Amino acid sequence: MSKIECLKETLINLIEAEPFIQKIDIISGKYGVNSEYKNGIYFLYDKDEQVVYIGKVGNGKSTSLYSRLTGHGSGSHKVEYWWKEIVKCKFKSFQDLTNRELNQIERLAINKKGPKFNDVKINDSEAEIIINKIAPLSSDN
Questions:
Q1: Going by DSSP bridges, is the β-strand pair 88-93/51-57 parallel, antiparallel, or unpaired?
Q2: Which of 37, 45, 83, 99 is most buried (most C-beta within 10 Å)?
Q3: What is the mean pLDDT of the chain?
């Protein structure tokens, strides 16, 4: 197994080992700005306990799991069309990781789990379109 695949497996296992947090508890503000729910990765689940979105929470002064999910502003998930499908989440804090490292492991988790509401994944038809567009570039060399 490659180091990247090993990291993906470890990451997924760490997050999935965390307890569920119910949506109602997030909305209540229990996981607010001054909480330990910062600098980490979260999985959002639907009623069938499928991971439908993966995101990260930074370590900023006004950042928290609550603010990322239900707070004010355009970055809040409560304004997304799919928010009504979310019933619970899991969160794992990685206090020793930098913002760049959090971004990297967020991408790895998205790549591994393929949640339906993350827009950074790519399906076969999208891949084919891109391949057709870049193929002429490879023949130029």
A1: unpaired
A2: 37
A3: 85
